[in-house]
Amino acid sequence: MDFLPIFANVRGKPCLLVGGGGVATRKADVLLQAGAKLRVVAPEIADDLKSAQGVEAITARFMPEHLDGMKLVIAATNDRAVNKQVSELAQARNIPVNVVDDPELCSFIMPAILDRSPLMVAFSSGGASPVLTRMMRGKLETVIPQNYSRLAAFAERFREEVKTHVTNPAKRRIFWESVFEGVVAEKVLTGDEAGAEAMLQQMFKDEDNIQRGEVYLVGAGPGDPDLLTFRALRLMQKADVVVYDALVSKPIVEMTRRDAERIYVGKRRADHALPQEEINDLLVRLAKEGKRVLRLKGGDPFIFGRGGEEIETLAAQGIPFQVVPGITAASGVASYAGIPLTHRDYSQSCMFVTGHLKDGTMNLDWDALARPRQTVVVYMGLHGLDTLCAKLVEHGLPATTPIAIVQHGTQPTQRVITGTLQTLPDIAAREQPQAPTLIIIGGVVTLRDKLAWFHPQPQ
After folding, report:
1. Where are the domains of the chain?
2. Which position among 12, 50, 218, 295 has the lowest Cβ density within 10 Å, counted as fewest Cβ atoms?
3. Residue 291: active-site member
């Protein structure tokens, strides 16, 4: 360990910043946010820094007397000789000093900061690689959302009351873990602090039964893990049991808690691991056992994901649940394929339909689908491609209407096959695309050639 990581209290204390440019301005922002009384010294000081509230601006070259009374010093000039002078004089007076991008002259390092006040996280490479430090901070941003500050403040508010009710330190730690990993924390994070406080008070009365089951119905998006929401990632790390579909990609499943039980309930055409009714009952049973259940579904739970059926059962059984939207396949896959779903010159509306109904037929509203100047996105339509193309032509769409099949959209195995309503069935028979696929119909498909160099590439 090259540096001892500490947090300094500079609120109301005089601090010196030597330098008046852009770098100095950024350091001033941090010091002012921490409540420092800031003195800025430089021959030239940026106007926004000079006029900032709480700043004593001295337009002059650095002199030793500028250190008088200071509790902390930062040198941020582009003149190493000046920076070195500041460092040596400050250290001679035992004043902590940081010289930007020059670890040899520092007695302390300014870290990259993740601010969720009162929760604070600081990253430092000891000055070896500030860029890597900022990248690591960015990664943690995805794990600790902004509203964790609300959770930390909630815990601070009830800290003494918890001590009063739970006097044993070991039990108190378990109590707080149950708060932070359970329904109370979720209510705080979603803004329901009144509900969280009521549940906390109930926990005081029922310490032996603080573990309460809940179901998280989470949309996993179309396949690329980068498209998951922050909230989805957080709940994926909390769940005791993961119940996942066939359309959830393996990398996403691997991002769930390592010690969580994983239950596959995937459904493909003519191959259902569990019927939907049994999945509904499974979620209820696991939650009643006191487990936090992650129901992980491809795309968005409420767009051809049968999420509505599942929460109907949960609500009827009085099981607490949360629904986390995901990027639906139509949006994510079309973007990665370089096909905008709407475009002023080609399409003023977009329809999502499923090509596989309960009875196994493709009994769609063909007149509505065959309207001009719209985009039609067909989920689960590969098996009925011949029927789909023939019916759309029969109901008025030109046989030359562009159409695309996107295989494994947003994933490394993504493949896009294009043609027209007349030609695509033969092309697909030759190319043999593999499910899962998405079918996109309309003039917007022609834009793929123009946008081929610009759309995101699956990783």
Report:
1. 14-110, 148-209, 214-327, 333-451
2. 12
3. no
Say what the pLDDT of residue 212 is. 61
* The architecture CATH gives domain 333-451: 2-Layer Sandwich (3.30)
pLDDT score for 166: 83
Paired strand residues for 406: 416, 438
**Residue 234 pLDDT:** 87
Active-site entry in 27, 187, 224, 245: 245
Residues 417-459 pLDDT 10s? 999 999 999 999 999 999 899 999 999 999 998 776 555 566 5
Taking the C-alpha atoms of residue 285 and residue 424, their distance in angstroms, rounded to an integer, is: 46
Kindly state the tokens that stand for 408.
């494994």
pLDDT greater at residue 140 or residue 444: 444
The answer to pTM > 0.85 is no
Q: Please state, in angstroms and rounded to a whole number, the distance separating the CA atoms of residues 98 and 436.
A: 55
Domain 14-110 - what CATH class?
alpha beta
How many residues are there in the chain?
459
Whole-angstrom distance, CA of residue 32 vs CA of residue 38: 7
Average pLDDT over every residue of 287-299? 90
Domain over 214-327 is classified CATH 3.40.50.300 = no
Tell me, what's the pLDDT at 9? Answer: 94
Please answer whether residues 446 and 279 qualify as being in contact, where contact means their C-beta atoms are separated by less than 8 angstroms.
no
Question: Has residue 110 got a pLDDT over 80?
Answer: yes
Q: Among 267, 281, 386, 391, which one carries the catalytic annotation?
A: 267
Question: What is the rounded CA–CA span in Å between residue 228 and residue 17?
Answer: 41
Helix ranges (DSSP H) in 209-292:
230-236, 250-253, 276-288
Fold of the CATH domain 148-209:
Helicase, Ruva Protein; domain 3 (1.10.8)
